[in-house]
């Protein structure tokens, strides 16, 4: 049996080290030796277009074609993927190719099932599939909740006038700009003076001018 391990995190709010330690602790406890160092990605879990995962998948399928038995270890199902349909499709493909999946957070996947089709094995396999689908649903729900919070946060900033240029935070508070732009209108300052003083690029300055005119003319 050849063992592989994979861990994915987002690029912002999570750390690879913690997941790697969890995997190392797990394989030490189970006396498992990995065939390859842990494959890792810092990418979105919305799809499987990830460099290390694609490399892992290619290697696992190669070993299967060489007649080896292969097991993949992940700490949590959402470390594999967050999109329910895509994740379940990926898992079904693994199963069809004879790749066993161990999910640390799902204890029933830790036990290798015998190859025969006895009732006990069939029941355990059914339980595993049900639990995997349930955890995939949780991961999908969490992704949707995160996206919803992000969308609502951006809209709230736009409603308050704190979001500019379709997604970029404002370079400067609009009221602050207006105060100095009034001095340009009164000829007390030149546009370049305002750009220098407020550290604005020319395109940003004139974007603020356009907004000022739309609101005041």
TrEMBL record:
Pfam families: Resolvase
GO molecular function: DNA binding; DNA strand exchange activity
PROSITE patterns reported in the protein's UniProt record: RECOMBINASES_3
UniProt cross-references to SUPFAM superfamilies, sorted A to Z: Resolvase-like
Record-annotated Resolvase/invertase-type recombinase catalytic domain positions: 2-161
InterPro entries from the UniProt entry: Resolv_N, Resolvase-like_N_sf, SSR_resolvase
Protein name, UniProt field: DNA invertase Pin-like site-specific DNA recombinase
Family, as annotated: Belongs to the site-specific recombinase resolvase family.
Organism of provenance: Clostridium beijerinckii
Domain of life: Bacteria
